[in-house]
Amino acid sequence: MDRQVETMVSVLTSDHPQWIRAVAWVGRLQEDDGSPAESDIYLNRVICWKDGGVVAEYYTGFDDYEAYRAIAEASKDVEWTQFRLVADRDGERQVRFVTDEPRRLAEGAATDNYWRQVHDYAQLNGDDLETLVRRLRSTGDLPGGKNKSRRGVLGYFRPGA
């Protein structure tokens, strides 16, 4: 599963070199009669650090579908109704399969509370993002920051290190 999650993070952030956090949500849907819907609802946000501030963007390609399918295949024995992923630039990952909530109805799925949580991620999680920015800045991993990380012995010889 770790490999599939890392692939998904890599795909989501591929067009966003200044990313600091990627958030993805998949909700399994059902029809009005309770039968599983033919598709799931999927939403992502890529939080970036640009011009000294946090900017929320989307991954708009299609390669993430294959990464999601790999996660769905790897978790096929789990009766999950939601998949939640929060991935930080410095390697911290939170992956949760929600199993104790029902499937969302296909009709109006984009108004689901968790859908709003991802769509409005930057506005709803400002304090947490400030903490992340401070953490990345302190390690030199904030994109565009003046400090560069001193990883490894040769890092001490980099200009500005």
Describe the structure.
With 161 residues, the chain is of the alpha+beta class. The protein is 30% helix and 29% strand. The chain contains five helices and six strands, in the order H-E-E-E-H-E-E-E-H-H-H. It has helices spanning 2-13, 63-74, 113-119, 121-124, 126-139, and strands at 19-30, 36-50, 53-57, 82-88, 93-98, 104-105. Strands 1, 2, 3, 4, 5 and 6 form a six-stranded mixed β-sheet that branches. A hairpin with a 2-residue loop joins strand 2 and strand 3 (53-57). Helix 1 (2-13) packs antiparallel against helix 2. The longest helix has 14 residues, at 126-139. Residues 147-161 have low confidence and may be disordered.
Radius of gyration of CA atoms, rounded to a whole number: 18 Å
What is the H/E string?
HEEEHEEEHHH
Helix content: 25-40%
What is the β-strand count? 6
In terms of per-residue confidence, which ranges show pLDDT below 50 for 5 or more consecutive residues?
147-161
Biggest sheet character:
6 strands, mixed
Average the pLDDT over all residues and give the rounded result.
86
User: Which class do the helix and strand fractions yield?
Assistant: alpha+beta
Q: How far is the N terminus from the C terminus?
A: 36 Å
- Please report which band the strand proportion falls in: under 5%, 5-15%, 15-25%, 25-35%, 35-45% or over 45%: 25-35%
* Bulk shape: globular
Quickly count the helices.
Answer: 5
